[in-house]
């Protein structure tokens, strides 16, 4: 009985170590996407919404260049799905245009050609 407990414990430890190693080796990719974002409010909206998308690890928008850098797991999402998610938030994403309904919901300063009044 004692031997069985020892073997079971050893197997459990090995399984936990294998799962941990697998998670550490999980694939990560990065993509840069040109957006139609105009201000810090856009940055907050995009980054906050993308945090809830499956497979996205991190997103950072450079407001000056309008380039969004997204770190993601390619086993769970694709660049095209990420662009579509950005579109559904109301912003252009490379060649994918903003979803018209989502775009209408954006604050005026976040719309194309508008001047932002948040000081940036």
Strand order of the biggest β-sheet: 1-3-2
Number of strands: 3
Q: Please tell me what the overall shape is.
A: rod-shaped
**Name of the CATH first level of the domain at 29-110:** Alpha Beta
Mean pLDDT across residues: 87
Rg calc:
21 Å
The number of helical segments is: 4
- Element-by-element helix/strand order: HEHEEHH
Structural class: alpha+beta
Biggest sheet statistics: 3 strands, antiparallel
Our measurement of the CA-to-CA distance between the termini, rounded to an integer number of angstroms, reads: 70 Å
Low-confidence stretches: none
Examine the secondary-structure arrangement and name the CATH architecture of the domain at 29-110: 2-Layer Sandwich
Q: Which percent band covers the strand fraction?
A: 15-25%
SSE topology sketch:
Layout: H1 2-24, E1 29-34, H2 40-50, E2 56-62, E3 67-72, H3 79-89, H4 100-105
Helix pairs in contact: 2-3
Give a written overview of the molecule.
The chain is an alpha+beta fold. The chain has a domain at 29-110: 2-Layer Sandwich (Alpha-Beta Plaits). Helices cover 42% and strands 16% of the residues. It has helices at residues 2-24, 40-50, 79-89, 100-105; strands at residues 29-34, 56-62, 67-72. Strands 1-3-2 form a 3-stranded antiparallel beta sheet, with helices on one face. A hairpin with a 4-residue loop joins strand 2 (56-62) and strand 3. Helix 2 (40-50) packs across helix 3. The longest helix has 23 residues, at 2-24. It is rod-shaped, with a radius of gyration of 21 Å. The mean pLDDT is 87.
């Amino acid at each position: 009985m004692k031997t069985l407990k020892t073997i079971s414990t050893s197997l459990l430890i090995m399984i936990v170590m294998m799962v941990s190693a697998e998670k550490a080796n999980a694939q990560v990719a990065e993509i840069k996407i040109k957006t139609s974002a105009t201000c810090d409010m856009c940055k907050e909206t995009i980054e906050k919404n993308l945090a809830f998308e499956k497979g996205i690890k991190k997103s950072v928008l450079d407001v000056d260049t309008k380039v969004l850098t997204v770190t993601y797991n390619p086993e769970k999402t694709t660049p095209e799905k990420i662009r579509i998610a950005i579109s559904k938030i109301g912003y252009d994403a490379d060649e994918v245009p903003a979803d018209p309904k989502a775009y209408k919901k954006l604050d005026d300063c976040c719309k194309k050609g508008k001047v932002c009044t948040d000081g940036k």
